[in-house]
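Hello again,

I reread your note about wanting to compare the complex against the isolated chains. To keep things tidy I'm splitting this into two emails, and this first one only covers the full assembly. Below are the input lines as submitted, including protein chains and any nucleic acid or small-molecule components. They are followed by the predicted structure of everything together. The single-chain runs will come separately.
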Amino acid sequence: MRYHLDFGFIWTHFDRLTWGLVLSLELAILSIFIGMVIGLSLALAYTSGGRLVRGAVAGYVEFIRNVPLLLLVYLVFYGVPSIEGFAYDATTSFVITLSVYAGATLVEVFRAGLAAIPRGLIDAGKAIGLTGWQRLIAVRLPTMIRIVLPSLSNAFVSLFKDTSLASVIAVPELTYGAQWINTNSFRIIEVWAVTAPMYLVTGYGLLFLLQRLERRFVVH
Amino acid sequence: MLFALQSLPFLWEGLLLTLEVSALVVSISLVAGIILGVGIVYGPRWLYWPIRMYSDVLRGIPLLVLIFFIYYALPLASINFTNFVSVVVALSAFETAHIIEVVRGALQSIPRGQNEAAKSIGLRFDQRLLYVIAPQAVRRFLPPWINAVVDTVKGSALVSLVGIVDLMLAIQQVIGRTYKPMPLYVLGAIMYFIINYTLSSASRHLEARYAYIRE
Amino acid sequence: MGGELVVQIRGVRKSFGANQVLDGVDLDVHKGEVVVVIGPSGGGKTTLLRCINLLETYDEGSIRVDGVEVGFRDGGNGVRQPRRDRELARIRADIGMVFQLFNLFPHLTARENVMLGLRKVRGLSAVEARQTAERWLTRVGLGDKFESLPSQLSGGQQQRVGIARAVAMGPKVLLLDEITSALDPELVGEVLSVVQELARDGMTMIVVTHEMTFARDVATRIVFMEAGRIQIQGTPREVLSTTGHDRLKAFLARIEMKHH
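Full-complex prediction:
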């Protein structure tokens, strides 16, 4: 193989990768939080709503989960402005897309979490006279959070990997940085040899940290 | 919206390619995933870590990164696959890692006593797998596997980024000619939705059926 | 009890990390004997049993069933090599085991559970296997349960299917691993009476159990294992009314207390 490994170009432009990684993380964090708001609201609506509400929520979830994320990215970035007449920058568009995507995934997580709350706890809440809202805030949500923490951690790491799709609309996250270095230097092996481990270490590192966080909650 | 439907014949070609890529990847990853999954659970110690590494690494990087890497790197190793073959290789490698986990989960959910009882009546390894383990593992395997199939179809959309004219790229090309992105994206979304929703419905149906029969 | 030697265990040692589970076990079992192994948990009884059909490996020593070394083969130059799966399968076909947790195959009916080994290991035809299976299921009192799935059977019934499954294979020795420990008390009797019948018909058995009454009534020999070694063995009368052995007395006393 007539190929000499040369990491020079990579190190010169390493900041594209490091700052790209930072942006990827920011995108993931924003999306998971907005996604949690969407997901939790819809899960609560689903649990307590009538057939119409359940149908609407299910429709939203099924649609988002069965369509490629790439298509959603394009739809939001290119499609929506064309009919609404406004424009937004790629990063905002991507955050919206990924949040909506995360929301759809999390509806099921939260719904299952709510359903897994032991009946006894809710009954105890009723017995001491808490109203529906009070039971929700004081009993159901805290319990549910402990139940869904593992799924949330997995969802977050998954979203982190999905941020690589932002590169297709030129958001300067990690994959975009790597592609830039790739096309400007053709140092393919080197750039991906650096980028892939960055995803791996960050992804598994996050998972590890989140699992340690989980344990502190569960012991409580 | 009407004109979008006029582009259907062109999109149809793209859809066929999407299905072709997906079918190939699903088949390859199913076979490879089962073999490696069985290997990691029942195989000798020295098989465990290599397979584990493979699975963890390929599930830890974004699919897009893998596709780009394989697409650009293979020619350097003097392997001159066509674009089509490169993406099938990349997608299959990725999906296989996921199937390994699905197989592992299904096999490990079977109590150890089953394998022991099978051994105690003198069944060989292949017989134990075929008559005792697999029948029980299948019902725990199918629903997550169908999810993986849906993920494969969704992931196949990324091949549009390296020039394969699948449904996704076909949509882009029509938009390029007509400058009407929204109707086409919506139409494309519907087409993907029909495929994947059918698959995931089959999965839900199977889950319900199995729960009724053998419990 | 003369008779040919079915199981011969010599100097068997096994450790799990720092824990010496089996610390030099010697045991002979002759044809037709019912050897009951008692002792405190962690004493090695179940491990020893599971070494006989190599569900557990042993580090040192020898276990021979019908003259064949179970765990190892001769690799030439007197080197011992672990047996491969195919050979193990053939050896295990002649050793029957009944498990504490039954381990019936949940996707098969009672009849199919018994037939599986007959068809795939003994090579019987479908008709022969069916008849044999039904014969054995009837003998253990489940003549009306051929089509039942394990989930439709009580614990005692499941265990009897487990016995039929093991015995139908025509094993040289039957290993019973605490087969009543997971049963509700009222179901224990039906299982033990099946075992008693098998003993009367001459089945060679090695039984690990806590059921002292059963041990006293059915055993031809009782073995007390503790700390990985056989501490004392003899006829039921010798062992159970012993005045000599301290740890055995302590163990029996504990058992007595539990049953009160």
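For quick reference: Chain A has a mean pLDDT of 89.

B.
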